[in-house]
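User: I'm curious whether this sequence folds into something compact or stays loose and floppy. Could you predict its structure so I can see for myself?
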Amino acid sequence: MAAIGVHPYAVQHIHALMPEYQQGMLGGADNNIEKLSGVRPMSVAEFARAHAHILNGEA
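Assistant: Here's the prediction. I'll summarize afterward.
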């Protein structure tokens, strides 16, 4: 099942990771994104707020 144009493999992968994310197992961080892109990475909460209109099916 594809969600918002996302490949089914990606949906399955994210679904499988959610329990680990919720348990804090994926909480490690480094500064590689900022070093490579020059932009501070977003938390999941920041990403969800910034893209809420898309995640809620609004254009």
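Summary: The mean pLDDT is 86. The first helix runs from residue 8 to 22.
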